[in-house]
Amino acid sequence: MENRKISLINANTVELHYWLNDGTHSMDAFIQNKCEYEFLGILKEIISVFDAEIIVETEPLADGGIIRWFKIISKKGKQEIKIGVITGVLIAVIATPITTSLSKSIEVVIEKITEDSELKDLEKENLRLEIELKRQEIEKNNTIAKKKSNFYETLEKYPKVIEISVSVEDNNNNKIFEESIIKREDYKQHILISDILEPIEIDNAIIEIISPVLKKGDYKWRGIYEGEVKSFNMKSNEFKTIVQSGEIEFKNGSAIKCLLEIERRVNSEGMEQIIGYNIIRVNEYFENDTPIETPEGKKYRQKQEADKRQLKLFNE
After folding, report:
1. How far is CA 306 from CA 197, 296, 311, in A?
2. Is 255 found in the same domain as 184?
């Protein structure tokens, strides 16, 4: 019966423990609320990734520093095993440094599934495959990364909390996963260095030019991209020179085909925002719907063709 009690199926409570440096049982309410806002935001995202219909309730505070319990309850049907997996993944996310893969931490969840005598072999294999897929999704989730960073950044600014610990329990307070402890000196490992994301590059993007810049200076071009008016930074000095020399006459409907770079960042809520559009290389411009290759576009095309020929020879 004891083995049954500590089954992953019974994991339904997450414990968040703030360890304080002065022996008291109180902390700044704004700091605590901010931390738990971000903590629950991470949990909400993980629930969404696993497509679970569950709610999270709080239970009374406990002494010993400050301990918060969050009970996870199914809204629809039997989702006990999914709840167990979600709580285990949450601990893995909170305890793993931001630049480290979740693989090793998630392996603990998979081991717990493998050891669980209440689960059938087919269930275990299906869960293992699902968790691996979801791990990759979670690692790419900007909202989780940002909220986790906010959580630790808030704690770092509040020296009274010398460490935190997180664990998963069942209704009888049996710990399902070993408690993870994160010390103050390690908070920095969980904080994003920058909010800037890797830019997206789109080759052969078509932009209809509304207002080109015909004189020297860092002025923004305006054009229509994917049906919306945007401002662009023209980073191609070669194309700027052609335009400023008067070689190209822009008319209504004039367009270019280019390498477009889209700059992105995450806001405080972890939502992705576009912060700039850069035209890196102009491959072609159009005159009366006729494409005209630019010198830099020709150079790029010839290099691509040479690379393909070399690859073909290598494969042969």
Report:
1. 32, 15, 9
2. no
Residue type, 66: I
143 with 270: CB under 8 angstroms? Answer: yes
Domain boundaries, position 107: 2-190
Q: What is the pLDDT of residue 1?
A: 33
Q: How big is the chain, counted in residues? A: 316
User: What's the pTM value of the predicted model, to 2 decimals?
Assistant: 0.83
Which of 146, 165, 190 corresponds to the end of one domain?
A: 190
Distance of alpha carbon 107 from alpha carbon 92, whole angstroms? 9
Per the structure block, which two tokens stand in for 265? 């960042």
**Structure token digits, residue 220:** 């923004």
113-169 residue pLDDT tens: 888 888 888 888 999 999 999 999 999 999 999 999 999 999 999 999 999 999 999
- Which residue, 137, 155, 190, sits at the end of a domain? 190
User: What's the confidence (pLDDT) of residue 4?
Assistant: 45
DSSP class of 157 = T
- 191-215 as b/e: b if 16+ CB within 10 A: bbeebebebeeeeebbbebeebbee
Whether 216 and 248 map to the same domain: the answer is yes
* Tokens describing residue 137: 């999704």
Angle subtended at Cα 46 by Cα 43 and Cα 47, rounded to the nearest 5 degrees: 85
Dist. CA 38–CA 192, nearest whole Å: 14
Amino acid identity of residue 183, one-letter, is K
Count the alpha carbons within 13 Å of 180 in the hemisphere toward its beta carbon: 22
Q: What DSSP element (H or E) covers 139? A: helix 121-139
Instruction: Provide Rg for the chain, Cα atoms.
Output: 27
Does residue 170 sit in the same domain as residue 213? no
For residue 316, pLDDT over 80 is answered with no
